[in-house]
Amino acid sequence: MSARIAVVEDEEALAIILRYNLESEGYTVDTIGRGDEADVRLKEEVPDLLILDWMLPGLSGVELCRRLRMRPETERLPIIMLTARGEESERVRGLSVGADDYVVKPFSTPELLARVKAMLRRVKPERISTQLSAGDIDLDRETHRVRRAGREVKLGPTEFRLLEFLMQSPGRVFSREQLLDGVWGRDIYVDERTVDVHVGRLRKAINRGRQRDPIRTVRGAGYALDEHFVAAKANAKVESVGTPA
Length: 245
Prior knowledge:
This protein is of the alpha/beta class. It has 2 domains: 4-127, Response regulator (Rossmann fold); 131-242, Arc Repressor Mutant, subunit A, CATH 1.10.10. The chain has 10 helices and 11 strands. The chain has helices spanning 12-24, 35-44, 61-70, 88-96, 109-123, 125-128, 157-167, 176-184, 193-206, 227-242, and strands at residues 4-8, 28-32, 49-53, 79-83, 101-104, 131-134, 137-140, 145-148, 151-153, 215-218, 222-225. A 5-stranded parallel sheet has the order 2-1-3-4-5, sandwiched between helices. Strands 6-7-8-9 form a 4-stranded antiparallel sheet. It has a two-stranded antiparallel ribbon with strand order 10-11. Helix 2 runs parallel beside helix 3 (61-70) and helix 7 packs across helix 9. The radius of gyration is 20 Å and the shape is elongated. Mean pLDDT is 83; it is low at 234-245.
């Protein structure tokens, strides 16, 4: 799944432009218009990168940034701060409270997109890479092809996105609600039972014969890509390298 970016910006026209351009680059985008609302939302779900305006109603961007850096779950969240203040003292203040980068309005959209990509490449390389591998499963984001042990696996668009989402975080258990948000998107209403249907289809497509099921069902919690499935393949590679000829 593509990187999720949260844009906290109270200028509606600018928020729309940012969302359009970021989504055109393949990112999943959430827009929030108030600092206090963003404070609550970011406690519920942490994005891969935050674009944060300096001046916001409810809670300033500077104060929000300071709070985020005090929480263990967001202390390493990449933050790009947007502001109309270009003075050196203000840039220093923004960086001192924890912003990773600083962009002065008006700014070049291509430049901001380049900064976003560069930052994600540095801190979230798995979100940028076109190739994902887990166990004996290989997924190519550009060609939308999946192979397991060399066999091509035919997947529908939803099953592909579901597998991609799970492969990005081996071992992490995602609730049905989290899978709906991450795979289908917040703006689309889908019944939670739909997740079970698509997980079943994904399992049917990727598992053949006595192949190990890489998807773990956690009763009452959700689904995960089994970390033991990933580790078993990695250990097998290490053992084969270390075996004398």
